[in-house]
From TrEMBL:
Reaction proceeds by a ping-pong mechanism involving intermediate methylation of a conserved cysteine residue. This is Dual-specificity RNA methyltransferase RlmN. Residues 101-339 form the Radical SAM core domain. The gene is rlmN. One of its GO terms (molecular function) is rRNA (adenine(2503)-C2-)-methyltransferase activity. One of its GO terms (biological process) is tRNA methylation. SUPFAM superfamilies: Radical SAM enzymes. Its main location: cytoplasm. It catalyses: adenosine(2503) in 23S rRNA + 2 reduced [2Fe-2S]-[ferredoxin] + 2 S-adenosyl-L-methionine = 2-methyladenosine(2503) in 23S rRNA + 5'-deoxyadenosine + L-methionine + 2 oxidized [2Fe-2S]-[ferredoxin] + S-adenosyl-L-homocysteine; adenosine(37) in tRNA + 2 reduced [2Fe-2S]-[ferredoxin] + 2 S-adenosyl-L-methionine = 2-methyladenosine(37) in tRNA + 5'-deoxyadenosine + L-methionine + 2 oxidized [2Fe-2S]-[ferredoxin] + S-adenosyl-L-homocysteine. Keywords: 4Fe-4S, Cytoplasm, Disulfide bond, Iron, Iron-sulfur, Metal-binding, Methyltransferase, rRNA processing, S-adenosyl-L-methionine, Transferase, tRNA processing.
Length: 381
């Protein structure tokens, strides 16, 4: 077997890893041992796996590897926010952001390099689509972040308590790899994160929301951004294919399958004079009347040539109050990581300076509080 055909064990779920060991004539229980070494302890060298005999270590070295994405840069903000730029196999760079808050730490993970959905306020969308990330490249972002905190064994003083698939890309357009990575996040042999604390955010790929419900029970967030089809067709073009009624029905089906009083997170980027008016709040109240949800308002963070502006604080408060008065649980996302340019819409220049890559390879992201920071995103998904 040549170097290029080695199997990357980083992105394999437990059943896949068991299948791998069987395929090389070894016992399935080896999968659990190796997963712990990889994900609990951040090990990437078979030699360090002390409970695995020398012969098997050599066999593994010959046919397998543990390889995460290449770290291009890592920054830590004075407020504790951390940002990684990593290069994936296609040569593109994507970003991962960690946001510490009281009692929890949320990691925002990318699923694609670029995005094909072209939401009008999103810098990632403007870059076009470059590549799907592999499962190893997706879980590799968690692996890298976890290692940066000192490879704590699972469940002990864990720095990463929540993961949100809200980075660059539309996760449901890279379904199999995203699902595999989320399964590893929730597996006790992986990162042991509760299903309630792993959130997939979608712009509304309705049929895939139903598919998701058949295979996993993570939390779901919908990037709404407009309370009527006419406006949403302009802001989130996939709405022309899957209009609001279709998307919200799919979300309701997904949430009702989860039971346990779980709700949809609705994300709404506030754009000055575009979707931030009282009539938009009223339409939103009507639209979400029978949707169990909480709402996360995201004041737009301008980036060059976006053509949009951030609403005034008064307009943001007014919008929030109108939703509150209608009985909704509403939070307003705050910007974090300003000093490392990890805040909303601040990343393009930095990444370009560091990597000299073309703009279409650059992720732009916003950060949030709530259970839902977003990357290339919060202006986005
Ligand atoms: S907002 Fe999300 S789905 Fe829309 S273009 Fe940006 S990354 Fe893609």
């Amino acid at each position: 077997m040549t170097e290029t055909t080695k199997v990357n064990l980083l992105g394999l779920t437990q059943p896949q890893l068991e299948g791998f060991f069987e395929s090389i004539g070894e016992k399935r229980f080896r999968a659990g041992q190796v997963m712990k070494w990889i994900h609990h302890f951040g090990v990437d060298d078979f030699e360090a796996m002390s409970n695995i005999g020398k012969a098997l270590r050599e066999k593994l070295r010959a046919c397998a590897e543990i390889r995460g994405p290449e770290i291009v840069s890592q920054d830590i903000s004075s407020d504790g926010t951390r940002k990684w730029v990593v290069r994936v196999a296609s040569g593109s760079c994507v970003e991962t952001v960690y946001i510490p808050q009281a009692g929890r730490g949320t990691l925002c993970v990318s699923s694609q390099a670029g995005c094909s959905l072209d939401c009008s306020f999103c810098s990632t969308g403007k870059q076009g689509f470059n590549s799907d990330l592999t499962a190893a490249e997706i879980i590799g972002q968690v692996w890298i972040a976890n290692k940066s905190f000192g490879t704590v064994p699972a469940k002990i003083d864990r720095a990463i308590t929540n993961v949100v698939m809200m980075g660059m890309g539309e996760p449901l357009m890279n379904f199999d790899n995203v699902v595999a990575a989320m399964q590893i996040m929730m597996d006790d042999l992986g990162y042991g994160i509760s299903k309630r604390k792993v959130t997939l955010s979608t712009s509304g790929v309705a049929p895939m929301i139903d598919e998701l419900g058949k295979v996993i029970d993570v939390s779901l967030a919908l990037s709404l951004h407009a309370p009527n089809d006419e406006l949403r067709n302009r802001l989130v073009p996939i709405n022309r294919k899957y209009p609001l009624a279709v998307v919200l029905d799919a979300c309701k089906r997904y949430i009702s399958r989860l039971g346990e009083k779980r709700v949809l997170t609705v994300e709404y980027t506030l754009l000055k004079d575009v979707n931030d008016q009282p009539e938009h709040a009223a339409q939103m109240v009507e639209l979400l009347r029978d949707v169990p949800c909480k709402i996360n308002l995201i004041p737009f963070n301008p980036f060059p040539f976006s053509g949009y502006e951030r609403p005034s604080n008064n307009a943001i408060r007014r919008f929030q109050d109108l939703l509150h008065q209608a009985g909704h649980n509403v939070t307003v996302r705050t910007t974090r990581g300003d000093d490392i340019d990890a805040a909303c819409g601040q990343l393009v220049g930095q990444v370009m300076d560091r990597t000299r890559r073309s703009e279409r390879h650059i992720a732009v992201r916003q950060l949030g509080d709530e259970a839902a920071p977003s990357a290339s995103a919060a202006n986005r998904t």
